[in-house]
Amino acid sequence: MPDEISADSVIEDERWEKAGLESLAERAVTAALEWHGLHGEVVVLGCDDARIAALNADFRGKPRATNVLSWPSVEHAPRDPGARPVFPEIEELGDIAISFDTCEAEARAQGKPFADHVTHLLIHAVLHLLGYDHENDLDAETMEAAERSILQNLRIPDPYQEKAT
């Protein structure tokens, strides 16, 4: 494994400059990787709904905007439902795209601070790069537990609290 953590931001939508995507990405990537005792590099693309809809159509066959997408650098090994993934031993973990429009709308609708919501989504995406998924209930529980713990370390409220009550 590499011995550094790096979050490289590529900003296509200038609203991400004002929102501080570079520092949000650095904080989220660092928190997620340190929580796992890992190092590596992640590239984060800050874009708008039009761009992420095009990416979603190209890579997932879903021609609509979404909040965040991720592309791991490696295909992850299958695992038992609910088990933590075997983490890749590579320097470049993968790429993330995040849409300002959708993130802003979701944060507003959920009454959450924008920075907290973006940080959560970036952590969620980093976990996908590490091999987590939410394809079944046990995997979703494992992934959400990791997210909650990482966010708690950052003093960000549990985004699933409403769901749990």
Structure explained in plain terms:
Helix 2 (21-36) crosses helix 5 and helix 5 packs across helix 6 (137-153). The chain has a 4-stranded mixed β-sheet, sandwiched between helices. The chain has helices at residues 15-19, 21-36, 49-60, 100-110, 114-129, 137-153, 161-164; strands at residues 5-11, 40-47, 68-72, 92-99. The chain has 165 residues and is an alpha/beta fold. The model has no long low-confidence stretch (mean pLDDT 95). It is 49% helix and 17% strand. The protein is built from 7 helices and 4 strands.
E-strand count: 4
Question: Can you tell me the residue ranges where pLDDT is under 50 for at least 5 consecutive residues?
Answer: none
Mean pLDDT: 95
Shape: globular
Strand order of the largest sheet: 1-2-4-3
Compact summary:
Helices cover 49% and strands 17% of the residues. It has helices spanning 15-19, 21-36, 49-60, 100-110, 114-129, 137-153, 161-164; strands at 5-11, 40-47, 68-72, 92-99.
Record the SSE blueprint:
Blueprint: E1 5-11, H1 15-19, H2 21-36, E2 40-47, H3 49-60, E3 68-72, E4 92-99, H4 100-110, H5 114-129, H6 137-153, H7 161-164
Parallel strand pairs: 1-2, 2-4
Antiparallel strand pairs: 3-4
Helix pairs in contact: 2-5, 5-6
